[in-house]
Amino acid sequence: MARPSADPVQATTNGDSHPARIGPHPGFISSSNQYSSEIKIRRMLKDNDCDPAREDNYRLQGVQLIESVRESLQLPVRTFDTACTYYHKFRLNFRALEYSYSDAALASLFVACKVEDTIKKSKDILAASHNLKNPEKTLAPDDKMFDSPGKTIIGLERLILETIGFDFRTRYPQKLLVKVVRRVLGKSSANSRDFFATAYAMCIDMYKTFVPIKRTTFSMVMAVVELTARMRDEHLDRVQEFAASRRQYHRDAVMETMLDLLDLYVQHHKSTKIGAQVDLSKFINIKIRLNTDLDSTAKPRHLYHCHRCEVEQAHPLSTTTASATDPANASNHWPVDASIRRTARGQDGTMRFVFDPEAAKNEQETVSHFFKDEYEEYEVEVEEPVPPPDRDEGLRARGGYSGGYRDRGDHRRGGPYGGYRGDRYHRGRGRYH
Fold first, then answer.
1. 132 part of a folded domain
2. In this predicted structure, which of 259-273, 290-304, 397-411 has the lowest mean pLDDT?
3. Domain with 295 in it
4. Beta strands 2-4 and 351-354: pairing type?
5. Long-range CB contacts (< 8 A, 24+ apart) of 179-184?
6. pLDDT in tens, 287-300
7. 243, 257 Cβ separation under 8 angstroms
8. Which residues pair with 376 in a beta bridge?
9. End position of a domain, from candidates 145, 164, 183
10. Residues 114 and 207 occupy one common structural domain
11. Neighbours of 417 (CB within 10 A)
């Protein structure tokens, strides 16, 4: 027998018999996460029921649209980096059938323009996108055609802000790429300019993968520099010597980044900048060589890999939301993401975004005590009266009828109405006594 213990919320005050007044719901806490592992990305795609091939096409087309509009509006490359990061996170947290990939890409660029202080109106971005698709029929940004799409972009802006958790920190590998190439090859070398041009184009192609939301800036830059050196067959020793002298260099992360880039160049050769410059067999040979190095060291292809999480069945968003937004549930396998924030708005309480993960964790642990049901178990011996024996069971024990036809020839029908209704049955009179 279980009995619930005293709830701390129901504790009495000043010895009074009346319960304490219950305050408002503490709400739900969400803390931004700058990095995601490969297994988490696959899990989110699986939970959203995404087709891998279709998702790859949407990702490539969305990034290409952001790049084309960015060049048309002459926006800096840091705006492109921020927009692609927001686009990847948005696509991971929302189903592909809910919003068009083009609307999500343009909305991500719209938010990135505000974050990077290169402000453009939503109609300017829509007009640039329309004019790129229809160069023979250009329209001005103040055309009435963009009124309805402009409202859609503004509506998606709120969802993107919730997706990133109002954390506007982003990474710009191009700035560090310039410094690393100068340190490795020197400033005035003519060969370093061609090397940098190739590495810069590869750095743009890198945003067509999920690398920017998985790796740090230094890991991305070192992967681009080393892969460029392997592709051009030059300065590989100098790059490795520079990497060995850096304390923050992580070989496993760089190896995973290079293999992700090679997967992009092998599978989507014509959708990249470098793919038009280098033969496909070159990328395949480099990929075989890197995979051989991984096999020789017996290291996994991806960092922080979990086989159990990969084969686990996908759970619906409603179940995820119910478990992850509960303050008492402290053992969630996956962090709270945009799909959960969207559903939590309709529940009791407010969704709050906290930048410090430690502060969010401490607050959640404090609040969870008030949502926890504690029980104390007691063993009680109870004497139950023995019920009287059933009359039909007694008749069966004495060899009477068995609920069906009788053996003595009176052909009574069985079933629920086939029993005796008295002490005896007289055949001659045809009635009961």
1. yes
2. 397-411
3. 173-307
4. unpaired
5. 180/221, 180/222, 180/225, 180/242, 181/225, 183/242, 184/225, 184/235, 184/238, 184/239, 184/242
6. 999 999 988 887 87
7. no
8. 3
9. 164
10. no
11. 8
